[in-house]
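Note to self: keep these together.
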Amino acid sequence: MKIQPIRICIIDDVDSYFNKTMLNLAGADGNLIFERWNKIGELELKNLVQSPRDIVILDIKGIVDREIGKDGFDIAKYLHENTPSYIVTTSAHKFKLKNRSYYGDYVLAERLLTPLDFIDELNFIIGDYLETRLKPYRKLLFKVGLKLAQKKLTGN
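Structure:
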């Protein structure tokens, strides 16, 4: 079985954040596939729901068409409730992120990152994503292993 690359969609209206250099360095080994959008409208939202990405990084200001939401928090909440995607919210205005962690899985407070800092932050996000997605399987494997051990001890 071939392991699929992690698909990451970044939605940010400012091209200098999460720029091509950062994404090229982060995806150099081929294990990450990046999409970079400046806006999200009805078609893009439908696409994210029908074909969920593994990780979605959302700016909260300036990315949303008014017919689908007020800001990125609306999109983050909707995606968090309707997809298995790991949702990361971010903003150049850190004060807008305060007490808003319930709109996703992770808050990326620092956006002025060097490419290496971005890779470090991305590695943490991917690790957290994998950890949260594997928890149910670990519990299931533990329960199966426990049942097998009990059967072996009792001889049933």
